[in-house]
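ugh finaly. both done.
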Amino acid sequence: MAEKGEACIRNIAEEPWQQFPAHYGGALSKALVHPDTTGSKQLDYRISTYQPMAYVERHVHKVQEQVYHVLDGEGLMEVGDEKRVVRKHDVIFLPPGVWHSIQNTGLGDLTFIVVTTPLTDD
């Protein structure tokens, strides 16, 4: 494995599942590219799997942009005042200042990629 901040190739099995703050009910993620795993300075790239009824609290980012890419399952995505069902192949772009949340309302796991940049809202 490369030193943090250097180019690297990682296998998904190398990163443990974790439940980040404000994520509940089996909302698990693997921080594949993150300051703690690769030393990235501008990018957070995660794969997440939410068990049925799992969710992340409604929240907003001041400067961060996010992209969610649903790989499997279905859930309910709240973007601003709108709630929509999201499924495999849906891609959601969230600019700064938009309140949002996602929860698994389906019968099986909801799996998606989340990309966030920059790393903090400072």
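ok and the 2nd:
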Amino acid sequence: MAQHPTGVAMRLDPLVTRILAPNASAYTYTGTQSYLVGDTDVAVIDPGPDDPAHLAALTAAIDGRTVTAIVVTHHHRDHSPATRPLAAATGAPIVGPAPVSVSGEGGADAAFDANYAPDRVLADGEDVVGSGWTLTALATPGHTSNHLCFALPESGVLFSGDHVMGWATSVVSPPDGDMGAYMSSLERLMERDDRVYYPGHGDIVENPRRLVRGMLGHRKQREGQILRLLGHGESPLETMVARMYAGLDPRLMRAAERSVLAHLYDLRGRGMVAEEGETWRIAA
């Protein structure tokens, strides 16, 4: 990725400006990318973490213009916490997906922003409108059950959040993350003709269909890898992950484990594998 500094407003096209938050990590790459959409009035997409320096950078980029809406793709802590101080400062409504309550095995992990509270919940196909711009919500569950992408038809742009990133595939962590839903959402994007994706993390995606096709292929390869391993006999999750992700950065091993579990749950739902205590096997 071409490096750019945090806190600097970069115009990507006449309607879109990007500001990178200073929260680089093994999970966020160079950091969360917040976007301003519009000219005379603006929407702020994914204002990011509640970080004073990033809030100051967003405020400087807004430069006194009216903020029509603070838009959220999903309520992970690297995307939505800054909605609250930004709303307090601008008076703008917070709009985005409905909050989710996650229980069961895995639960709501530390990534979730438990205080996310939208003023307006967007359903698939609903619009947020400003002067010369429209953001249309596109339901893309999988990374989270409530994930939304946003199309900007005036520019041929899709803000892809964490559903499609420009540096790595998304983590799909049950119970809120769902591999079957994630694959279906990727298939839905394949039917579109967006010119470019502006993701939550990583490079601008300039050939969206090629990347999405590759992501679908990657996930199908992982599924095949799981079935081949189980074809040699039953196996616990940890053993499969260790064999499938040899050499992976240890900081990412937990994420890999969650994604393999998501594949296993999807395969179990399709009647292809079965769970017996701590082990998995090919279904009889």
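summary for the 2nd one i guess: The mean pLDDT is 94.
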